[in-house]
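Quarterly update from the structural biology core.
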Amino acid sequence: MPIGAGQICFFCEKKITREPAWTWAGGTGQIWSHPGCAGDLMVRIGYDLTRWQQQTGRRFHEADKR
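Predicted structure, tokenized:
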């Protein structure tokens, strides 16, 4: 049985079945995703952060400095 089989993909919300899975451990638990969905998620995060930086004129780490 592949690692992650039976888990729900964080990105597409479909069950992980036959392929290996990608996991990310965070402060409140783990998220699982299909390998392709992991790449799509990273692209989305990068896009959202770049857009936020352009709209606010700040870099991400500067959001905590107030």
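The chain has a mean pLDDT of 86.
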